[in-house]
């Protein structure tokens, strides 16, 4: 005789087999589908961290909106920073389909318990930083995120399609800022080079730890959330940067960087992983400032949330009265 517990086991086995088949055949897993608990957890982890990165990532550039060198630059930068807010919203929505609430995610972020990309804990002291962020940070984001458009989880993959289109514009605007500076005065060229010197290494660290120190990669690749390893994407990014740096006339600050004919890949200097892990532990140059700013913005925005909730309540009441 089969007990109820055994029956649920049989059901889980069938469900697991269906899940495996969907993943194997490049079909999408949707919120209504059964999924292993570990798959759900991994997605919540990655998508929420990604959403937080977009929202915290507004701060380093927000720093320059009031000081952009022209009205046109200001309008472009404002549009870009607003795009990042939009990316955060699509991603929070995608994570919510997995059963976590937006409030929980926000609380985790402002309590300093959630991770977000290491890159956003560095300061932006000059206008050239807007160029370096666009070129390097958005450039790295595109290389990392284009494969995520094919992520096995439907809502994540679909959110990524639109995000990548916008990141592409962001990368070009950064490149164009640097190009203009490089065609300017000696001082402007120095400012552009200095910004690239400061952002280059942290942008390489965005791809995550080396493959042999990346605990999540193997399983995420089996589930077809990630399609390429951290090192493979880092290598692809550097390959993309080299010809663009030549056009800019900018030097990538790695004396060991050279193309290796034998391996068909770039040899590179060592990334400072101690610095990376320090930033992850909350000890980067701007971690405390970023979280404090987000917490304050959240508190100052309480009245907007209350007003929106009250408006929704009244609308629902009115709809009920009409019906
Ligand atoms: N920073 O085992 P793995 C943007 C953590 S958006 C902080 O390799 P996984 C747009 C990792 O979470 C940028 N933490 O992990 C923009 C894990 O910790 P956990 C964000 C990092 O998930 C531009 C641990 O280390 N992009 O730039 C970092 O397989 C301009 C072990 O690592 C995304 O989130 C890091 N750099 O691979 C916005 C893309 N790297 O959770 C504004 C989606 C690793 O076990 C302005 N995410 N960690 O405690 C991904 O592709 C992956 O999650 C990786 C990490 C590749 C980031």
Automatic annotation (TrEMBL):
It comes from the Bacteria. This is 1,2-phenylacetyl-CoA epoxidase subunit PaaA.
